[in-house]
Structure formats: C-alpha cells, structure tokens
C-alpha cells in the first residue's frame, strides 16, 4: 500500500503527540499534579496511530484504561485531556472521569473504560447502531491481550460475527496483563487465532510498525464498511513503563525490555522518513517543537483551570434529575 | 377504554412507540418469532420485522452492552432479559457502564435505553428464576427503576420509560402477565409519580408489583374489621414520589411497606429508613416492613408460597400495628 | 475400540432408563403432578450415556437445566430424582431445588443448574481441586450449543487450558437455544472449532452414536488423567421435544424433525445389538420391563412422599445459621 | 502484642491458616509474585509457592467459579477480586451459585470459601474503582459478609472467615491498608459479634469500615461539647449482632448509622429499618443515616472528598439529633 508523504508525516506527528503527552503525564504524575491511576501508552503509539489514521470523525472507537493514545489518535484535544487528568472543570469530563474515563462524543470517542473488557460490548452496540441506521460508519474496539480472557470479549466477537456488524477488534498485545505474562494467562501465542471461534478473519501484525497496522486496519475497515462483518487484528507491541505509574515493572525481564526498546516505533518511523528522504532532520526537530508547544499549552491550560464547583457533583447523573445534596 | 392483560399492555406500549419512532427497537433472547419466554413480544416480529425485533445469542452482557452502544449513538433500544435473575450475568454492563457512563463522561453522552426484566416468584421456577432484585438497582445512581402493577400502569410506564433519556429498568412480575385490567388512556406516566390504588385513612400500605394486589385484597378483608387502608403503589421506585407518601402519612400516621424481596437489605428497608428519617414526628408506630423470608426461593410449591408474603401477612401486620 | 457385550448392554440400559424416566416426567408434567419448568433430555440419551460410561463414582460432572439424563447416567437414583421433580421432602434436594437443581455429591454430581453457562466455571473449580489434591479424578462439564456464547464458556476453557486442568468439556449441540437455531446464534458450524482459541483438542462426534461419544470421551478423559489438560468434545444431537414442556417447538421445521427422528439413538443401538447378536429381542423386552418397573417404583415413591415441612424452609441456607421465621 | 498494618494483619490471617491447613490456598489477579494490586499478598508466593498462591487470568467469573468448584470438592479457597467493583463481573457466580447452591441442593454441599474484595473511595480511582457495595451482598441469603476496620479485627475476622464453612465475603477498605494498630492476639473472631470501639452514653453511632475511624474522630470532637458517643462496629454485616446494638440503644435511645455507600438503598437503610421495626419504643429520635451522596464516585479530589462522608458530617448529624 502506497502512502503519501504527507500522510506519513501526519502519522508521525500523531505518534509523537502521544509520546510527548504521555511523557509529560508521567512527569506530572511523579510530581503529584495528577492524582489517581495513570496507565501510559508509551511504546504502543504505532497501534492507535495506524488504526485511527483510517477513521473519519464520525467513526467510533471504544477504549480502555490505557486510553490516552487512542484518544489523541482519534482527534482528542490535548488541552481538555490534560485538564481531565488534573481533575479540572475544563476537562473532557468536567473532572468527573479522570484518566480512565475520557470521552468525546463529537469525535466518536465512546470512552476510555476502567473495567477490563467492558468496551467490547459497547463497541458491538455502536456497530449494531451503524447497521441499523444504515450509515457507512465503522467502530473500532481497542483492548489489551489480557482482556481477551474476559467473557465480554467472547460475547462481543460472537455477536458481531453472527450479525455481521461493522466492528474492527484491535487487540494490543503488549505481552502482559499487569504482571502476568501472556504465557501464563492464555495457552495460545497469537490472539488472532481466536477469530476462528467466530468465523471471522484474524490477523497478527507487528504493532510497532505503524504502516503494517495501518494496512491491516485499512482492509478490515473496508470489509466492515462493505457489510462483510468484523475482523480481529492483533498488534504485537510492548509497554515501556510499568502497568500504571508507580509499578516498577519488576516482572519484565531486562533482556526482554531491551529487545523491545530496540523496536521502539518512534525511532523506527523517524529512520524510515529520513532514509526515504520524506523529511529532513530539521523538519523533524520542527515537528517536535510544535508538539512540545502544544503540550506545554495543554499543561498551562490544565494548571490555570479551576477545580469543579462542589454543586456540579450532583449534575450529569441523569439528564433531568439533579440529586439533592441533602443531609447524608 | 379497553380490557387488556398486563402483558398486552407492555406490548402495546412498545408497539405505540415503535410505530412513532423508527429508532425504537427491541432485542433479547427469543423475543423474535417465538414472542419471548412469557409471550410479551408476541406478534411484534411479524409487525416490525427482524431488524426491529431481534433474537440475540445467550449473552446477557452483550445484550446490555448493545443497548448502551446503540443508545449512545442515536437509537432508543429496548432490551429484554428473560428473567431478572440474569441481571447477575450482565451486571457490570448495567451498573458500571449504563449507570455511570454519562456521569464519568461529564454529561457528554445520553443513554435512552429500557431494560425489561420479569421478576418475582410463584411459578415454581426455584431460586435462580424467581428473585426480586429491585434493591440492587435502586441503589445505583444513574439508573431509574419502574415496576408497574396494573395494565394501565404497565402501558403508561412503558411509554414513559421509552421517552425517558436515561437508562430505565422496567421490572415486570411474571404472575401479573395474565392479569386483566381496564386501560383508559395511552398517555405516558411520568417517572416519579406514585398512584393511590385505594384511599383510606387508618394506615398507609406502600406496596410494589404483585404485592399491590395482595395489599388490595388485605384492605378488603380489613374493611370488615372497620380498618380503612390506603394503598400506595410508588410505580417508580427511583425516582420515588415522596410527596404522595408524606401526604398519606400525615393522614394515617402508620405505614406498612410490602415488597416481595428478601426482607433483609430490600428496597422496603430504604423506604422505611427514609420515612423514619424524614417524617419521624408523623409516625405513631414503627414502619413495618413485609417481605419474603430470607431464603433463596425454594422450588416446592408449599415452601415457595410460604416464603412469599401474601394478604394474610399484610392483614396480620396491620392488625398488630393498630 | 472394542467394547464388551455387557458394557454395551449396560449403556443401552442407561439410555432406556433416561428415555423412560423422561417420558414419564413428560406425562406427569402434562397431568399436573410436576410443577415448574421441565426440560427433557429425550433424543439426547447417547451423549450422557457415552460420556458417563467412562466415569467413576468419584469423578465429577456439572450439568445444566436439561440435566436429568446426566444425572441418571452418572448414577443418580431415580426415586430421589422423581421425588425432587415433585417437590417432595424425600427428593435429592428435599424439594428445594426441583428439576433444574438436582445434585448428588456422593456421586460427584455437582448439580444441574438453571443459569445457562454457570456450570462451566464450577467445573473448572473442580478440576483445579483435582489437580491441587493430586488425585486421578476428572470432571466432565456438560453444556448446550447456545451456552457456548456465554462469556463463562470462554473464561472456563481459557482457564482450564492455561492451567492444564483435568476437565472434559462436552457440548451437546442440539441445534437450538430455545427457539434460536445455531445458525442465528453463532457464525460457526462446528463448535469444536472453538477449541483452537484455547490451544486444546476439539472434536466433533455424532452425538446420537453412543459408541462414538464413548470413544471420544474415553480418549479425552485419558488425556485429562494423564495431566495433559482439557478437551472440547462437541456431540451433534437433537432434542425431540420443545425447549421445555409446554413449548410446542414450532420453530423446528418438520423435515428437520423427521430426519433427526430417523437418527434416534435408541432404535439405533437396539438394531446394532440385535444385528450383532449381542441381545435377543426377548432380552430387550426384559430389560425394558425392568426399567419400567424401576420407573414405576420411582413414581410411587414420589407420590407416597410428603411435601417438606414448612420449618425446613429456613434450613440449608448456611451450615450454622437457621434464619428466623420472624414477622416478615 | 504487635504493631501491624491492616494489610499485614489480613496477610497474617491468611498465612496462619495456610500454615495449618494445606487445603487453604489463594488465587486472583496478580496475587502471586506481584503481591496483589494493594500488596496484601506480598511474600506469600515466596513462602507457599505457585501452587498455593496463584495468578489467574482476568476472568472474575472464573475466579469465583473456581472458588465454588474447589470448595465443593474439599478445599478452602481464598479468592481475591482486585476491587469490589469487579463483583459486577462475577456476580452470577457469587449470587446465583455460591450463595444458593447449598440451599438448592438441599444442604448436600458445603462451600467454605472466602472472597476478598477491597472497596471504598479516597484514592481518586473514580466511579468504577471506588464503590461500596455491601448492600448488594448483605441482601443475598447464603452469603456472610464481614468488614474489618482495624488490624486486630482484620486478623481475627480473616481467621474466622477461613474457618467458616460458608461463603464469606471479606470486604477491605483500601484507605485502611496502611493504617497501623496493635494486634493483641491471633484468635479467630466469630462472625456475628460486634465490637464497641468506644463506650458512651448519649448517642450510638453504628459505623462500618473506614467510617469507624471517622466516627471515632467525631466522638473526640464531640467530647469537647460534652457529648459522649458510643461507637459500635458491627464487623460482621451478616450475621449482624443485634444484641450489642440493642443494648447500646437502651442506654442512648439515639442512633446514627454511618456507612460509605451511596445512601439510597444502602446497608445503612437495613440497619435503620431493622432498629425502627424492632426497637421503636426505645428511640427518642429518628435513626439518622449518613452515607455518600447519591452520585457515582467522581474522580476530581475535591469532588470525591465532598461526596464521601467524614467526621464533620457525623458531628453535625449528632449535634442536630441531640
Ligand atoms: C474487570 C476488571 N478486572 C480487573 C481489572 C484490573 N486491571 C486493570 S488493567 C488490568 C490488566 C489489563 O491487561 P490488558 O488487557 O493486557 O491491557 P494492558 O494494561 O496491558 O494495556 C487489570 C487486571 C479491571 N480494571 N477490571
Ligand atoms: C444466563 C441465562 N440466560 C438465559 C437463560 C434462559 N434459558 C434457559 S435454557 C436456554 C437455552 C439454552 O440453550 P442450550 O445451551 O443450547 O441448551 P439446550 O436447552 O439446547 O439443551 C435459555 C436461553 C438462562 N437460564 N440463563
Ligand atoms: Mg496487556
Ligand atoms: Mg441447545
């Protein structure tokens, strides 16, 4: 598949936007500005980027606890994201959701989700809706390797396949569910093997190769838009950090880590772009600076925003009822 | 004015909305040509076709998840769980997703969805098919819960539930399906409005679901003893119409709450605690709760009927109270 | 595999014990002696029989809503079964369980179950226990085709395979989940295909051929006892009746029904035994009479038993607490 | 006498039993070498090995199911759910299986199993990782439910829970894990025995989990105003020690119930309703419940701490009551 240079540069930019957003979040968490649980996407940038490059604004995604990368790639605004991580009223969720619950309906982002496996069936519902409304949208469902042992994975893929729903299931196999290596949470190597159980195509790609991810998804999405049903795509990748910030990741053997660091998707695309003369080193630096600026603005925005008003706590539960803040 | 069974009234509520709004549709296990395990959707498949009345695989999580995903993206799904007992299988999708997404997302999505679920005992279906689980779901912020006791209420509440922009849990009682009643109008009943099923001045009985009928029977029996019972059916468990309860209490100063749930930890306790807390000065006597014995529902007919409260229990409780 | 004649006769006898028990239950339900929901095993007798013939008393099984056949085959006593269907105090569960909840711990029967898919994980737990206690027992998990779309199926097979537990998963594919044909509840034809998702052997056999079922299970059980892990066996079969008594089964095409009636496992094994001269026609009649007698005794036992005392209703919830029968 | 954290005490309880009984073992997500998400099982993997301290895949249904199947066949499993919020995922196995099998089978099987589950808010983990779900499980006949508030109780209740022959739900509060306290003995605490954390004569506060500590703080503040609060920790939510509550009530004639749950439909309501029903004549004032606001738990620190009750709420409620 031939990609235009500008598309390649776009993809690169998305990748470094994720990389730099996450690096900043890591630092801000360490210094205490961001509370709660933060699961970083560092190392997995090629997956969200390669997938979402295929999507239109009105296509849907469902995301996970490790959702920042998906949201950036699907067009989320870094300012509102960062403000949400801080718990500020200007955040995507008015401070009510935090890192694990960012959503943006205007961009088709049906939300990060703190329950492992919960996005699968919501994605199926969005797929059902697309089919029902007869549009040519598609829904991509992101999830981790370990989530494929949750019953919801099975129910979702079964329903999507028997109803031929326009859903693309993208598994980010980063080898671990928290501390548990894939070899100890399932008896298979390639999660794409599970597609057989639903009579749908299952593909495994190098998840650190943004072009491979792009291509595989492109085909799956075409299939979905053509009403041919769902596809399961497994992207083999690796997370650079611990499961969440604060986890030193002692269970990851050093050798394994080093090998995967060599496969870091970002130097890889950079080298490709330089080798193929798609960009110059100077252009790369400019792009990075641009992104740095955006990130700094996002942090500033978050810093300057207020915490939500206490009254707001009883809003947004229902469309119509505001809970009383009565004697508890 | 028409005579209708409770099941027909539920169906009629769905049909009216489906005719008006192409975004309303139904899915669940065997709800299609089969017409549902209790026949509630019978005929709708023929009328609206497979697209709008869909059989699903046995995957309650996927059923509720499909409701969430489709509601979030512009549709107004009605999902059926074959028995309320199967809530347990889709509990995460309901409680951690449907109920919370709007809040967690800062109000950015809207989930107009109805989940129908037949509850209650009385058909020797034993412990896994006879529960009354309203306490769990009324405890969850983000869900609304209704529970009709008559055909008229079933129709009106179904219209109200489908119009509502929030996840509405629609509890049905399987023993009521064949109960007939007059249906005077096809107007939606707004959620949060109780109905006084019988006016009275001596004692207030707050009852839900099938227990409304037992309370009415008890009130007839008690009339002979000169005791004039007021029977209130909240109809909507959340939001709860506290005003109607309060008005009645001001008159009677005595309350009995009757639900079919296991008494320990039941929704009846919430009503009781709320009344004590807010209207203590109006109480001449403790709020009495009547519920099922705290056992799983047994199979054997004699045991089952012993566990579930009935009009005699209500009569006895009221006599003791007065 | 060479089976001794006496073993074949034993299997036949089990099959007609099930057939006649179920036929009697059908009649008793129709005449109002048995309340509640009754799901009959008529037509599927070869599955339970072929499987359980391989099991010892201390091996475990988990069963389903359609459990009578499994219980008979695993050695359940017809008297206590029938009394339980009636809801009598002499029943297996003292009348508290009914048709859907018969269990017999002394025979390793971990219970019929009214929740579709609930037995899967209980079976895994029994398998875990066997492995932990280092015995050579095995646990067989019975379930229907439609239950394989429940998340629990997936979680159970995954866990059993990654831990190599001695569990044999036996799917009774009778083509329907209530009214929904397999083609409308999953996109696959052979449920044994799902074994791939767990890297375990998956086998499809003719579920109306008791010998085929016996053989496949025999191998799987050997594997399990040899600590080589679980197997998924799919038995293609058909239920003669509606989903439960009272369901006329209008969704089953007449042609389909007729074809399957021709494959009825009972005439089939009878013909085999006669053809191979394993039994004479007279012997067959004797066997049937013997079973008729046993069934009649079971019915009489149930009829003559009392309903449980009302006080017993608060017993058996806990081992130590008896609930008060207080003002409700 | 030793100083121990609450987490250490839970661990110590498990360790003692594992040393004595080879049939006691642990499994759950990341409970092995990783030591559990909150570090509660740290070190047990090294001590007892992989067979007895097992990591599972992320399959809560299978975790609870494995506990059931192994308990039914002779073992004494301790299963960990990483957060109580994940109950929703394994709810059927817990409620329709673990709680009901013994009853449905006429007492023919015994399920000695413990399910550990950290609950509660306070670490900005937001709506899906901060719930207090005791109301659901106390409502289910067949389950026992304990909820320690101190290291001593955590150790004693863990021993009691493992010895118990029934499914015991062991709720832990994640904010208490690092709280230290003296552990005087290693005796099992029988389920169903409350503890008076502070004696007093003016008002009875019944509090659970972390709220016990807030109640104790409130009682100190109130002492300055001459109000002498008695603080009761039921420790075991079911079976509930009604006697201790009744005795206190006879003295104080006033009760405040404090739980961290969403107030609507919470277990606090059950206690309140029970007290009104059984001891109405001893009440000088309504039973007051204090609970969280009826919202999903918000993420933002300011909102979160606003939603959850604290000592000031308790002080205010008591002042108003007296
Ligand atoms: C139902 C449920 N169980 C457990 C958890 C705790 N938990 C959060 S993330 C996680 C691991 C997920 O692994 P994977 O799906 O591979 O995603 P990754 O974190 O590797 O991206 C676990 C166990 C949860 N949030 N929800
Ligand atoms: C969780 C759950 N969902 C739905 C049901 C209702 N139900 C009982 S049996 C059944 C069909 C089961 O089909 P299958 O697994 O193929 O078994 P079969 O009845 O064909 O033997 C359904 C939907 C149930 N009991 N439990
Ligand atoms: Mg992973
Ligand atoms: Mg079937």
Secondary structure elements and pairings:
The complex is a heterotetramer, with 2 copies of chain A (328 residues) and 2 copies of chain B (322 residues).
Chain A: H1 5-30, H2 45-52, E1 60-62, H3 68-73, H4 78-86, H5 118-133, E2 139-144, H6 151-162, E3 167-173, E4 176-177, E5 180-181, H7 182-185, E6 202-206, H8 210-225, E7 231-236, H9 254-262, H10 265-275, H11 281-304
Chain B: E1 2-5, H1 6-20, E2 24-28, H2 44-48, E3 53-55, H3 60-72, E4 76-80, H4 87-98, H5 101-104, E5 114-119, H6 134-138, E6 144-146, H7 151-163, E7 168-173, E8 180-183, E9 195-198, E10 203-207, H8 210-223, E11 229-233, E12 236-238, H9 242-252, E13 255-262, H10 267-279, E14 288-292, H11 301-307, H12 311-321
Parallel strand pairs in B: 2-3, 2-4, 4-5, 5-7, 6-7, 10-11, 10-13, 13-14
Antiparallel strand pairs in B: 1-8, 6-12, 9-11
Helix pairs in contact in B: 1-7, 3-4, 8-12
The structure holds thiamine diphosphate (TPP) (2 copies) and magnesium ion (MG) (2 copies).
The site of one magnesium ion (MG) has 6 residues of chain A, from strand 4.
Q: What would your notes on this structure say?
A:
- The complex is a heterotetramer, with two copies of chain A (328 residues) and two copies of chain B (322 residues).
- With 328 residues, chain A is of the alpha/beta class.
- Chain A has a single domain (5-307), classed as Thiamin diphosphate (ThDP)-binding fold, Pyr/PP domains (Rossmann fold, 3-Layer(aba) Sandwich), CATH 3.40.50.970.
- Chain A has helices at 5-30, 45-52, 68-73, 78-86, 118-133, 151-162, 182-185, 210-225, 254-262, 265-275, 281-304; strands at 60-62, 139-144, 167-173, 176-177, 180-181, 202-206, 231-236.
- In chain A, helix 8 (210-225) links the parallel strand 6 (202-206) and strand 7.
- The mean pLDDT of chain A is 97.
- Chain B has helices at 6-20, 44-48, 60-72, 87-98, 101-104, 134-138, 151-163, 210-223, 242-252, 267-279, 301-307, 311-321; strands at 2-5, 24-28, 53-55, 76-80, 114-119, 144-146, 168-173, 180-183, 195-198, 203-207, 229-233, 236-238, 255-262, 288-292.
- In chain B, helix 1 runs parallel beside helix 7.
- The mean pLDDT of chain B is 98.
- The complex binds thiamine diphosphate (TPP) (2 copies) and magnesium ion (2 copies).
- The site of one magnesium ion has 6 residues of chain A, from strand 4.
């Amino acid at each position: 598949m031939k990609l235009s240079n500008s598309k390649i540069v776009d993809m690169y930019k998305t990748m470094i936007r994720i990389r730099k957003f996450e690096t900043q979040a890591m630092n801000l968490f360490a210094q205490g500005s961001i509370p709660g649980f933060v699961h970083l996407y560092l190392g997995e940038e090629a997956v969200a980027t390669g997938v979402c490059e295929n999507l239109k604004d009105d296509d849907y995604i469902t995301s996970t606890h490790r959702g920042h990368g998906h949201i950036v790639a699907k067009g989320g605004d870094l300012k509102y994201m960062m403000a949400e991580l801080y718990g500020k009223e200007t955040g995507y969720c008015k401070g009510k959701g935090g890192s694990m619950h960012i959503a943006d309906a205007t961009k088709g982002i049906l939300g990060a989700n703190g329950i492992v496996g919960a996005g699968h069936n919501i994605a199926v519902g969005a797929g059902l809706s697309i089919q029902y409304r007869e549009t040519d949208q598609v829904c991509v469902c992101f999830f981790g390797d370990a989530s494929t042992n949750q019953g919801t994975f099975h129910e979702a893929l079964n329903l999507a396949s028997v109803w031929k729903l326009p859903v693309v299931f993208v598994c980010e196999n980063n080898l671990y569910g928290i501390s548990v290596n894939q070899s100890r949470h399932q008896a298979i190597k390639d999660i794409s093997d599970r597609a057989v159980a639903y009579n749908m195509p299952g593909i495994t790609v190098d998840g650190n190769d943004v072009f491979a991810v792009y291509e595989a998804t492109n085909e799956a999405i075409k299939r979905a838009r053509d009403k041919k049903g769902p596809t399961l795509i497994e992207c083999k990748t690796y997370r650079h950090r611990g499961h969440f910030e604060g986890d030193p990741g002692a269970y990851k053997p050093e050798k394994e880590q080093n090998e995967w660091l060599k496969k870091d998707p970002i130097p890889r695309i950079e080298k490709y772009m330089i080798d193929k003369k798609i960009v110059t080193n100077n252009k790369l630096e400019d792009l990075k600076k641009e992104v740095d600026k955006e990130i700094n603005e996002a942090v500033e925005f978050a810093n300057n925003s207020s915490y939500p008003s206490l009254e707001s706590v009883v809003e947004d539960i229902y469309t119509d009822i505001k809970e009383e803040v009565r004697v508890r | 004015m028409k005579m209708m069974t409770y099941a027909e009234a539920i169906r009629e509520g769905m049909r009216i909305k489906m005719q008006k709004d192409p975004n309303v549709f139904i899915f669940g296990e065997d709800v299609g040509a089969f017409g549902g395990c209790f026949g509630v959707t019978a005929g709708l498949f023929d009328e609206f076709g497979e697209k709008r009345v869909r059989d699903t695989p046995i995957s309650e999580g996927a059923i509720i998840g499909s409701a969430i995903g489709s509601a979030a993206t512009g549709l107004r799904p009605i999902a059926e769980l074959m028995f309320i007992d199967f809530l347990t299988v889709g509990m995460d999708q309901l409680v951690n997703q449907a109920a919370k997404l709007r809040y967690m997302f800062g109000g950015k999505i809207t989930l107009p969805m109805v989940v129908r679920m037949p509850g209650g005992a009385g058909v020797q279906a034993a412990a896994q098919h006879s529960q009354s689980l309203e306490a769990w779901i009324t405890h969850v912020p983000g869900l609304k819960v209704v529970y009709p006791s008559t055909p008229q209420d079933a129709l009106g509440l179904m219209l109200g539930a489908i119009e509502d922009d929030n996840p509405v849990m629609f509890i049905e009682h399987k023993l009521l399906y064949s109960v007939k009643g007059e249906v005077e109008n096809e107007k939606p009943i707004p959620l949060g409005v109780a109905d006084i099923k019988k006016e009275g001045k001596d004692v207030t009985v707050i009852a839900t679901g099938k227990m409304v009928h037992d309370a009415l029977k008890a009130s007839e029996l008690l009339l002979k003893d000169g005791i004039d019972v007021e029977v209130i059916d909240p109809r909507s468990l959340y939001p709860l119409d506290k005003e109607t309860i309060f008005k009645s209490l001001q008159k009677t100063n005595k309350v009995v709450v009757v639900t079919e749930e296991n008494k320990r930890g039941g929704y009846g306790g919430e009503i009781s605690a709320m009344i004590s807390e807010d209207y203590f000065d109006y109480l001449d006597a403790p709020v009495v709760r009547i519920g099922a014995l705290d056992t799983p529902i047994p199979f054997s007919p004699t045991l089952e009927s012993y566990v579930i409260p009935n009009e005699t229990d209500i009569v006895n409780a009221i006599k003791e109270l007065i």
